């Protein structure tokens, strides 16, 4: 990366607002109200960088709430480096609670943050992240606006425990739901055990979407090396908050901007790291979205090409056995990068927010615990990335291969005549309410070879896209020991789920995707060797079904509940294109416009 000349104080962006002799009236209006709580005239006009802090924590977003404390250290760092901190709120996003889904808020928070960063006197920004969508929303906005920006994750919660067993966020819920369905535990026990997984401040302690996306921020070079996975309550977390604030000021002087960091090579690095982490199936959606806003071509074929062959090195739930604390102590993201870089699988020349080459930043930071962060020669799974499946039902759908269990492999993928392929009768559900209402209906004839299909769960069908594709089998099958069936759908699934579903199918049923034409009783063939899924129904029959559906006005979806749901539905791109807003990626580097 070619370095730009250091800025001089009169080149600061904030000077237009705070020291603009051509518009004295405007300057006076901008300045006077900041003085009303004690900011001094000198702070605003003597050429100190003004550093925004996008505060994602609030009582509504408990995963990020300790940023309210952490930003005190960020501000200390900013002041020590000669900057002035201005904290402001990010639209709250809480993954578990937001109805109908937190995915509605990613693009809304993005839009809001773009307007703040563009419209206010900020020279740089610290982006506080944590819960799933807070991280991509911030990175998308940083790419669009392109003022110096640095990510500070809140870090995962401490490990959850029951006795001497680790209890992981989200992962335990999927487990307990099966125990409840099988009648092993009651509702009170369910709630008590679920709360074991959340012992402290911080985001999910598994390698769900939150840990994955904060690790992606670090792998992209947008946060300080080693910072993503420091547990929320650790003292190092507050220390790195200070360092992040300090660094934000220096980035302004160096004029080191997000689009200098978010290069094609950086995205390729992120894809490779994601596989080695056993990262969330939501990562391709969000990382593709960040790439679109950065003007970098990245699609699900890239994820398969670059990522599928990469081995699983992080022994962290849901793909592995440990949680965030062990992962951090074993060396965190730099230890994983170290292993991959040694094998020539990463670009070592990319520059991160620390202003250094990746290869220099992670030098000597190898794994400190080879059980938790594996050596390349001793992985948990040989090929851990995503397969990008295609066929006559969709253009793209992903399967996370790191979580294919030995049981699933034995039951579906070890037919000697036809390895890596299986066929089955499908049972179709239209959205998660339909699934819950009918899954235990014996009339459906679900057995150990059935393939469950979920549709109406994409970003238009269920505004924002529902995390519902990982469907559990009927209770009767679970009692017989069949704990999973192949699932396929146009929705997403939680990053904490250990299910190898075929998900994010695009285009979705609600926008005319052929998934709308499938009927219960059809047969489906899944061939992982060929990366193909085919509905085994002849073309004439498909054509007739299409005509009938068109005559009914297409696949139905529920009414909009809010203005934003309507706006987003009319503008949203499919999941394989990152569910960005159509046209938004045409805006780039807007800080200079
Ligand atoms: Fe917020 Fe998992 S629910 S991080
Ligand atoms: Mg989720």
UniProtKB/TrEMBL annotation:
List the EC numbers from the record.
4.2.1.9
Show where the Dihydroxy-acid/6-phosphogluconate dehydratase N-terminal domain sits: 48-360
Disordered, as annotated region: 489-513
GO MF entries: dihydroxy-acid dehydratase activity
Keywords assigned by UniProt, alphabetized:
Iron, Iron-sulfur, Lyase, Metal-binding
Domain Dihydroxy-acid/6-phosphogluconate dehydratase C-terminal residues, every copy:
371-578
InterPro entries membership: Dihydro-acid_dehy_C, DiOHA_6PGluconate_deHydtase_CS, ILV_EDD_C, ILV_EDD_N, IlvD/EDD_N, Sugar_Degrad_Dehydratases
Polar residues bias (residue ranges): 493-504
Q: Which family does it belong to?
A: Belongs to the IlvD/Edd family.
The protein, known as: Dihydroxy-acid dehydratase
